[in-house]
Amino acid sequence: MSSQPSKKFQEQLIQMLTHRGFVWGPEPEIYGGLAGFFTYAPLGKRLKNNIENKIREVFIANDYWEVECPIIMPREVWKASGHLEGFTDPLVECSKCKGVFRIDKLIEEKYPDVIVSAFKEKEFLEFVNDAKVKCPTCGSKFLPEIRRHNLMMKTTIGTNIEAYNRPETATTTYLPFKRYYEFFRKKFPFGVFQIGKAFRNEISPRQHIIRCREFTQAEAQLFLTKKLKQDWKQFEKVKKEKLPLWTWYMQDNKSHPQMTMLDDAMSGNLLKNKAYAWTLYVAYKIFTELGIPHEKIRFRQHAPDEKAFYSDDTWDLEVELQSFGWTEMCGISDRTDYDIGNHSKASGTDMTVPDEDNNKIFPQIIEIAFGTDRPTFAILDIFYKPESGVGERNVLKLPKHLAPVQVAIFPLMARDNLDTKAKEVCEILQKDFFAYYDESGSIGKRYARMDEVGTPFCVTIDYDTLEKNDVTIRERDTGKQARVKISELAEKLRKEL
User: CB 424: neighbour CB atoms within 10 A?
Assistant: First the structure.
């Protein structure tokens, strides 16, 4: 299942993102820039907003409620969660230029089929000692030593309270569990989700907005009992759906993922409970609703020695990118009752609640965890089509519902009342759509600009418009044009968008 990333395409894409106003950085550019920090420029921010709104829409449709929790928490929280001790990356140092890099990511980039998440120090050292990976800066060998680097970003509250920026939203979401329980009238199941900033002190951020030090996460937690996991009523609605499952033993045997009906996955013991199977489908629904093609998605199961010790099962949703090959986008984990139990013990707060049989329990949690920056990059990567020859054009074939600009309005020329009429049409359309007015340059150049930023439709006001009150509407992907009455224009766009 190896995919061949294209360095040339990656460079073309990032150049376009910078030039056309999607993503700028690393920031602050005027001070030389810090790796892992980016500005979402006007078009990029609109695209990211549209993606986050679609994610929000899918979560809400599946009965998750949105919350917003603090970004900063005191040291005790992160000690209880295990982040202070265990949230580390394996590093190597170049023997010549002294550059420091994450060895796991260097291996993944050079050997896409190698699963490094289960590697111990011994396996990493084999790659270093055999010089299978070398310093990406100077090409020299690495020193034969693996160092561990903690990813937590430390801060101080007031004058003396040690605290940390959250490295993920999940932990902050768990803590008000007893409040949720009261809000949901002491009945399981219930789900919450959070979209917000997180921070990781990556030693060598790479791959543009795929790996940042400051990023946005979207994580959802489903709280339930062990009994509800097996007797999950919503499973009936999705049991005939097929997902591309790549079990850990398929990976071991070098076989490909299989499109598997969820009902068959349960009966064949590929998945352990119905609630988890349903949650996998919710994650799949998010990415397909964004417009990512089915054939570019797979679910990769963590091997027993790869998953966290408390996890009953973990699968990653991966997407195939032109720039980086198969790339992790989302993790779906059955975290059992580990998190609430740990925080109950560390805080001295009784966080047990009664189950169906009135036994005191900590709730089970099934989690969907991902960042919104990665799907934003994935959408741009998959749908950007750079020109490949004479007469070709650069086109960003975004799904129409995600386009930052939905329709552009052009006067044929900025005179003879064409510009005035075009502005009138733009004002009409701005009531229902994100419409953009442009009178700069030739019509051909204006079309080209809008094609490259993904605008689905362009409307041109010409001399016939002044006489007949109609316009030319042009479709991005095909270049086809048609005349439409101004009075019918909004309705036509509404149907298309």
Answer: 13
Task: For residue 218, give the nearest of 69, 401, 36, 52 by alpha carbon.
Answer: 52
Rounded Cα distance between 329 and 347, Å, is 33
- Say whether both 426 and 492 belong to one domain: yes
For 285-354, give the DSSP string.
Answer: HHHHHTT--GGGEEEEEPPTTTS-TT-SEEEEEEEEETTTEEEEEEEEEE-TTHHHHHHHHHHT----EE
Residues 180 and 189: beta-carbon distance below 8 Å: no
Contacts with 12 (C-beta within 8 Å, 6 or more apart), sequence order: 384, 386
Structural domain tally of the chain? 2
Could you tell me whether strands 457-461 and 470-475 are parallel, antiparallel, or unpaired per DSSP bridges?
Answer: antiparallel
Give yes or no: residues 363 and 309 share one domain: yes
Residues in the chain: 497
Query: Which residues contact residue 42 at a Cβ distance below 8 angstroms, ignoring those fewer than 6 apart?
Result: 21, 404
Q: Which two tokens stand for residue 430?
A: 């701005």
State how far the Cα of 170 lies from the Cα of 193, in Å rounded to an integer: 9
Residue with tokens 């552009």: 408
C-alpha distances in Å from residue 447, one per residue of 8, 171, 393, 438, 460: 25, 47, 10, 10, 10
Task: Answer for the pair 180, 221: CB distance below 8 angstroms, yes or no.
Answer: no
CA distance 465 to 411: 10
How far, in whole angstroms, is CA 399 from its chain's centroid?
16
Residue with tokens 């591309």: 244
| Residue 391: predicted pLDDT | 65
Instruction: Decide if 169 contacts 73 (C-beta within 8 A).
Output: no
Q: Per residue in 201-243, pLDDT tens?
A: 998 888 999 999 999 999 999 999 999 999 999 999 999 999 9
Q: Based on the domain organization, do 424 and 384 belong to the same domain?
A: no
- What is the CATH number for 32? 3.30.930.10
Q: Supply the pLDDT for residue 1.
A: 46
Do 426 and 296 fall within a single domain?
no
Structural domain span for residue 383: 15-69+169-398
Residues 298 and 429 grouped into a single domain: no
Rounded to 10 deg, the angle between the 274-289 and 42-61 helix axes is 150
Report, as ranges of residue numbers, the positions in the chain whose pLDDT lies below 50: 1
